[in-house]
Amino acid sequence: MNNYQLESLLNDFLKPFAIKDYCPNGMQVEGKAEVKKIVTGVTASQALIDAAIDQGADALLVHHGYFWRGESEPLKGMKFKRIKALIENGINLYAYHLPLDVHPEVGNNAQLAKLLGIEQRGGLEDGNPNSVAVWGELPNAMSAKEFSELLAMKLNREPLHIESGVAKSIKTVGWCTGGGQDFIDLAASKGMDAFVSGEISERTTYSARELGIHYFSAGHHATERYGVKALGEWLANEHGFDVTFIDIDNPV
């Protein structure tokens, strides 16, 4: 498939123009015109680019690409080396950030719910059909310890648990993969028993304790490896691409 046709296909599926983001979604670096082999991964790090080169990839599809709002603009240092490697090897770089978080099928939130067995009920942000934070219910109530163990088993990473300060089991769960810890206040206001995200801030601890909601920091990378993997599987199954998911270890 032509590289611009692939971008159009991805745009039609993920609908990036329907959500305001702080980075460009779609093709970020142009490579060879014909795309057959695609490597997917969470972040367009040098290690992932090198792996894509080794795989003979025509395209690299990621969740975290480049050109973030507020970042330094000059192409030098680490950014230059990454982009130089892509261009020299003719690798197209496609990146989808928030559109990949919120997609109802292959999105990070949807895939995390599937992994944990949570039935997604809707968004936490009232009036926003593309709410980045969502909520759902476990089939059976769990203790905080049981839920923490479920996260560790499914994500292969021990979560940081901030207790709610009240003795209650977990049935309703709010979540936002990646850096969504500041949605904890909204989740508490909606009556959630627990909130899950990838990161934690100093203020998150006090929100959990004072608002009576369990908080689980499960890792930015760990909570966001499943969306881009599912997107690659969709490209392989529905459109015949040769797709390889490569998970570059990241403890954060």
Automatic annotation (TrEMBL):
SUPFAM superfamilies (UniProt xref): NIF3 (NGG1p interacting factor 3)-like
One Pfam entry name: DUF34_NIF3
InterPro entries the record matches: DUF34/NIF3 (IPR002678), DUF34/NIF3_sf (IPR036069)
UniProtKB keywords: Metal-binding
Binding site for a divalent metal cation 2: H64
Assigned GO CC terms: cytoplasm
Signal peptide residues on this chain, from the entry's feature table: none
Binding annotation for a divalent metal cation 1: H63, D101, H220, E224
Molecular function in Gene Ontology: metal ion binding
Family classification: Belongs to the GTP cyclohydrolase I type 2/NIF3 family.
PANTHER family per UniProt: GTP CYCLOHYDROLASE 1 TYPE 2 HOMOLOG (PTHR13799:SF14), NGG1 INTERACTING FACTOR 3 (PTHR13799)
Name of the protein this chain belongs to: GTP cyclohydrolase 1 type 2 homolog
The species this protein was found in: Grimontia sedimenti
